[in-house]
Amino acid sequence: MLLSLLLRRAIKTGDLTLIDATGRTHRFGTAQQAPVVTVRLHDAALHRKLITNPELHAGEAYMDGSLTIEQGSLFDLLKLFGINQEQAPPLPGRRLARALMPILRRAQQYNPIGRAKRNVAHHYDLSGELYDLFLDADRQYSCAYFTRPEDTLEQAQEDKKRHIAAKLRLEPGMRVLDIGCGWGGLALYLARIADVEVVGVTLSEEQLKVARQRAEDAGLADRVSFRLQDYREDRGSYDRIVSVGMFEHVGVGHYGEFFAQVRRLLRPQGVALLHAIGRVDGPGTTNAWLRKYIFPGGYAPALSEVVPVIEKSALWITDIEILRLHYALTLQEWHRRFQANRDKIAKLYDERFCRMWEFYLIGAEVDFRYLGTMVFQIQMTKDIAAVPTVRDYMLDWERAHR
Predict the structure, then answer these.
(1) Any idea which fold 113-400 has?
(2) What pLDDT does residue 120 have?
(3) What is the pLDDT of residues 241-276, one digit of tens each?
(4) Taking the domains of the chain in order of start, what are their residue ranges?
(5) Per-residue pLDDT tens for 140-167?
(6) Cα–Cα distance measured from residue 115 to residue 117, given in angstroms and rounded to the nearest whole number
(7) What's the distance, Cα to Cα, between the start and end of the chain in Å?
(8) What is the per-residue pLDDT for 94?
(9) Helix boundaries (H) for 172-273
(10) What is the CA 215 to chain-centroid distance, rounded?
(11) Which of 280, 281, 315, 328 could hold 368 in an S-S bridge, CB 3.0 to 4.6 Å?
(12) Which CATH topology does 2-87 take?
């Protein structure tokens, strides 16, 4: 079959055994070279689907149980395809898809305010209990910062907040905007650690309820407020602006709008810090399965798509840092906790949901380990002299607040 021919050309590293829907066995790669995986297809339609759109249909087949793994793990399977991706032959229709990419991704990432809210609700308005079962206690749903690989998730997330705060150069009494504030953990941290006033904006109604309650419970409601508001609707003025894990939902066609708004809201000596997922291999598109089931409208950009827009917005880029394996370690721990609470999550939703989230968490970890996905932090100012000329102040602040 054609699928077998394509796999024979694609798999050079590792050992893949495929049992097709007729019961025939096909073997690819190098015998007993890790990762060693055996996969069974239970639906003959997959023979065609995995050729035409493997990114979408492999995930759907795993969710539905029409693709099962008989040897090895889902991580092994996705790693096997990840480490062989560069030598994989072009699939039918792939050239046409690449030619249409600039048009298609603009449509896929079109995020006016109403649509942006619906996209956010798809993922972030799920049960709060779900997130409690795999995130840290502060519900930090973004890349942690592992100063040591053996650190706990809680420690790494605390270090992430401190790392971001150090780049903001906070002073008591400053007014801070948190764009995409999630459940409020970073905003509350900044208010506590630096005695600042924070305004958090989110499009998730569920996150808003939790964030407001947390501010009340912490006795910080007088200094930390949360709004159900799109960042484009804000008309305030801020000394500092921070955005963590939200830029992936902006969309390429809206980058100019985003940075123009940051510049409008930032005071003359202000500092902004953007923390987002990116890619190292240039502009691309979001995986079809991820776009359909997990993050509709989402996209992780290349720096080459972001930096030119910042330049046009008349903002200074005063610092860029690339975090490489930090998110792989974060996702590994999220998945471990997810599996430890799998029975509870299945009761909240169902088995198909659990398989969907396994595919998401493991697939994302593989992306960060083998497929050129990373996290970038960009510090921006309006004034050339708004931050010191050397980076020592960041390290000094972190060490003083460790």
Answers:
(1) Rossmann fold (3.40.50)
(2) 81
(3) 999 999 999 999 999 999 999 999 999 999 999 999
(4) 2-87, 113-400
(5) 999 999 999 899 999 999 999 999 999 9
(6) 5
(7) 59
(8) 56
(9) 185-194, 205-217, 255-265
(10) 25
(11) 328
(12) Nonspecific Lipid-transfer Protein; Chain A (3.30.1050)
